[in-house]
Amino acid sequence: MAQQQGTEVGPLVHGPCLPPGWDSGVSPRPCLAEEQHVNVLINNAAVMRCPHWTTEDGFEMQLGVNHLGHFLLTNLLLDKLKASAPSRIINVSSLAHVAGHIDFDDLNWEKKKYDTKAAYCQSKLAVVLFTKELSRRLQGTGVTVNALHPGVARTELGRHTAMHSSAFSSFTLGPIFWLLVKSPQLAAQPSTYLAVAEELEGVSGKYFSGFKEKAPAPEAEDEEVARRLWAESARLVGLDASRGSSVDEQPLPK
Ligand SMILES: NC(=O)c1ccc[n+]([C@@H]2O[C@H](COP(=O)([O-])OP(=O)(O)OC[C@H]3O[C@@H](n4cnc5c(N)ncnc54)[C@H](OP(=O)(O)O)[C@@H]3O)[C@@H](O)[C@H]2O)c1
């Protein structure tokens, strides 16, 4: 894509540019100011099925890291992504989103008993809904956004699951799992494909399983749920929801 345009691809933003919703508590604003062009943003980081932890900002950890952090970081970068167009945003979700449900009465797990699996599934459904709503908002800007399930890979994602914590499972199921799933390198390929494939130029608001476009879960296609989630996410992170790309400089809610 970049060679065709005769331009250089901008940096992949990750690591040090962590939004305040993440447990590092590092503000993204100073490092974001240094970047002049952002052509590709891959929102990849996640935590799965951790105990009932909260971020420094008081968000349930899986919602905070897997959705709200990416939501805020992406919005903080939107002006630069638009100025760098054509540019692409890739949101890494999971097949687990199909078991998710957005509970607007208790998005942050403050009322009901904590369920690590349901919290992960909700956060990954939120990623697909965010992708859909952002795509609608970005029409005509030259910035595309798609979500994907990378496939099951042998990474550290399962560190909080029983298979890792139980010696029996680790020794019996672990080797079988190891043989059946993808290497991290292979699992990274779909994200790279969505970031650079020429045939995906202009494709936006879609969900991919690996390299193939698929229909996401029915709740992920619900525009009303997506709009409501955007408004609620914006409220939680202190973003001006009506403008979509500028941030209210008020402190984040505790
Ligand atoms: N592995 C699978 O089978 C699978 C299946 C479906 C979807 N996915 C998705 O693929 C993506 C990559 O996961 P992975 O398998 O590579 O898992 P991983 O090995 O656990 O990597 C997760 C990454 O997220 C970062 N991260 C987690 N919590 C963070 C926080 N609070 N602040 C900043 N960074 C944080 C980690 O950084 P540190 O290393 O510094 O902690 C790490 O780089 C995730 O979105 C995951 O949901 C994976």
From TrEMBL:
GO molecular function: oxidoreductase activity
Source taxon at top rank: Eukaryota
SUPFAM superfamilies xref list: NAD(P)-binding Rossmann-fold domains (SSF51735)
Claim: Oxidoreductase is one of the keywords in the record: yes
Residues passing through the membrane, by range: none
InterPro entries: NAD(P)-bd_dom_sf, Sc_DH/Rdtase_CS, SDR_fam
Pfam families named in the record: adh_short
Keyword vocabulary terms for this entry: Oxidoreductase
PANTHER family per UniProt: PHOSPHATIDYLINOSITOL-GLYCAN BIOSYNTHESIS CLASS F PROTEIN-RELATED (PTHR43157), RETINOL DEHYDROGENASE 13 (PTHR43157:SF59)
Family the UniProt entry places it in: Belongs to the short-chain dehydrogenases/reductases (SDR) family.
Name of the protein in its database record: Retinol dehydrogenase 13
Taxonomic lineage of the native organism: Eukaryota, Metazoa, Chordata, Craniata, Vertebrata
Record gene name: RDH13
